[in-house]
Amino acid sequence: MTAPPRRLITHLRHVDLGVEDLAVQRGFYTGLWGLTEVEHDSGISFLAAEGSPEQYVVRLRQATDKRIDLIAFGAATPADVDTLALQLARDGVRLVSEPGTVTTPGGGHGFRFFDNEGRTVEVSADVTPRTHRRIEERESIPVRLSHVVVNSADPEGTVAFYERHLAFALSDVLTHPRMGDMMWFLRCNDWHHSFAVARGPHPSLHHASFEMRGIDEYMRGSGRLMRAGVEKIWGPGRHKAGNNTFTYFLDPLGNTVEYTTELERLDEDTWHPSLHDFSDPEVSDQWGTANRMDEFVARKSFNAPDRGLFVAPPV
């Protein structure tokens, strides 16, 4: 039996989105959502979370088509970046760029490639940490980017790609007696998930999730968005898989974004994935406080088809 590859990815860095109205999106994420713009130039906005050492956790780019520009992960060293690039090329994965200098804020050494469905993925190391700070009590702004979930028309193939080529590990699966397996939670460290794959009608962003300081800050942030009239899809509640809180909203262009906190940390040596049947209400929401998850709620996060598949972003 072939041994699994050594995990070279350490953590999630940022999610980059192509948006049709940059000004509207900038206003939402820096105003209501609570991110800080650290750089803006030539139709691109880099947004940081005040509690995170990452230079930015969201990048917005003015684009003709709505798309995921890329999902970025970190590696421990430039040598690990080079090793991963060689492994992917050897295995027939299509590289977008060879390892080299990263030109976005913080610099570093990285490369890009297409995953099995054509999303652009970046892996980098030696990015200069951002000066960040402790989020204070009652301060209801994101601490960090928690996880990114994608919709996939071939979720089994997408999960297999990230397990085989990037050594992500499966934490849990959401299943349904009628629809079958519907969401796979994948980890690259001891957080329950940094990445997840949902069964959907087409590849697209399902949601991006942002960790808050604690329950009080999570609820205050959720309340701020609701009072402002931002469309709430689902929540507040607490999931069973990952044991994290959730409130999902739609940003002005229809991307789903989540406030969360208390995502579970695992003992990777002893953890075994479970199947969670989300027809059981306590699987979807242990508290019973969220609105009912039904097909109409689920459809909100299908999003528009990603127009950037196998087309690398220009920057």
TrEMBL record:
A GO MF label: dioxygenase activity
CDD domains in UniProt: BphC5-RrK37_N_like
InterPro entries in alphabetical order: Glyas_Bleomycin-R_OHBP_Dase, Glyas_Fos-R_dOase_dom, GlyoxalaseI/FosfomycinResist, VOC_core
Keyword annotations: Dioxygenase, Oxidoreductase
Boundaries of every VOC domain copy: 11-126, 144-262
Pfam families for this protein: Glyoxalase
Matches recorded under PANTHER family: GLYOXALASE FAMILY PROTEIN (PTHR21366), METALLOTHIOL TRANSFERASE FOSB (PTHR21366:SF31)
Entry protein name: Catechol-2,3-dioxygenase
